[in-house]
Design brief:
alpha/beta, seven-stranded mixed β-sheet, four-stranded mixed β-sheet, 14 helices, 11 strands, 41% helix, 14% strand
Amino acid sequence: MPQDPFDWIDAEHERRLAAGLVRTLRPRPADSPLVDLAGNDYLGLTRHPEVTEAAADAARRWGAGATGSRLVTGTTALHARLEESLAEFCGFEAALVFSSGYAANLAAVTALCGPPQPSGTSPVPPSGPLVVSDAGNHASLIDGCRLARAETAVVPHADAEAVRKTLGAHEGRALAVTDSVFSVDGDAAPLTELAEACREHGAALLVDDAHGLGVLGEGGRGAVHAAGLAGDADVVATVTLSKSLGSQGGAVLGPARVIRHLVSHARTFIFDTGLAPAAVGGALAGLEVLRREPGRAARVRYVATELHRRLTAAGLTAVRPDAAVVSVRAPSPEAAVRWAADCRTAGLAVGCFRPPSVPDGVSRLRLTARADLTDRQIEEAAGTVLRTAPAA
């Protein structure tokens, strides 16, 4: 009898079940009664009437889908307008829109590593490109490093000196990659120090600003803008449209020559269907609301700080938020799952992060602040988390 080729899947499921690491899908209704601190709708724009109407209008005018890759039929006038608006708002020379933030990160890392350097006439072959990656980086940056097929050095979390030393030991082209705000604990990268380390050694800096756009910087222009690095010739940023802008998709921002290079070399741009017009229209409207109401950025930071203050004052261990993410530690994976479920039963949706999603192996609840939460909702949300907290 031939062996069942998928028997190993059952064994893997049992292993994960015993470790409390099985993940399940939970479809949400359109009119969920839960207060949402699990999603990434930082500015409360996903259901904003201007955003939803712009998305609907774009679908009516341009169709439900982009119909093809960006280089064939998938680029509309809306895509071009969004790219111009994002670049101008964030302070960069140019931008390129992708179907997701994940695709944007894969594109940026792989394309910016480039081909191996030619050896020329030297009898000693030069070093290939090097990627220096923070240990806390998002999975999309990690996968980009893997797909780039370049030498990758993983350095300790948020350690600019480690980046400097690693770059100093390498001869040849190099790229340092980091989140601006790390998605697990919500802490910020030392962008100014990282840029200085890169410039000492002629390396480029790539920053995933997914959790900074709309939250940090002047009027929500992002962490790169706040650090004074936006528009610099050696800095590239990626952003998502699915968090602060309330839509879907991603983008790469940088010098015009970098964007031109991505158009011809980024596989997740060339071979992927373009972002749907509805998502483009929604993102454009979200960006316009943010321009008009820059106070939303300050409000979401206040909400995050207030949640952290209330939880830690009551004895919970939580990382001080640098943006919108509040990370609260749990005793175990199983306890984290029960805690999140108890919060849900009490009317509050929270995130639950467990290995392997957390690089340090410590499970936690992940709360995402929203600018549209009232003071009463902040108080009630903190109270729910505290009442349902497991024993240490």
